[in-house]
Amino acid sequence: ARPGPVLRVRRVPTSRAMGKGPALIAASLIAVTHVAFTLIDGWRLDRERFAIEQQMTQVFKAAFPAAKAIVDAPLQMRRNLEQMKRARGMAAEADAEMLIARLTKVVQSLPGAPATVNALTVADGVATLDITLANAEQQPPLQRLLNNLPGASLSASGLKPAPLAVRIVWRVVA
Question: Structure pTM?
């Protein structure tokens, strides 16, 4: 017994299956376009960075002709500027940090209860620190500590609440 003829069923594509092809093509084109424009933009930014670095190097060479090798133009320019400021008696940024650090150590080394810092200003190589001492016995050791700092002075006039309020003024000695 032979089986009867086999019916072949052919599937007719539905609208859902037919819509995937153009969408995939469009998504692929969008992705390729996006990657291409990203690469072009990266190349453009790299060229711009290189041009800016060249300009920085030229400005550095014009400002500091004695420099032999230029490794990091912005860093070398900051260092040379600070060196020039110090040579001309002007305070550099590092001087303010040094003043604050030294005055902090002075205040922390006072015997007894900690002093209260009311104000701290640093401008043009002069640090001014207004503090209120915890007790009157802290003033003599504070004066001895300040005697070891060249350019430092201590005053208590006109500050409230007297007599525990003191002002330390310290000038950077060039």
Answer: 0.40
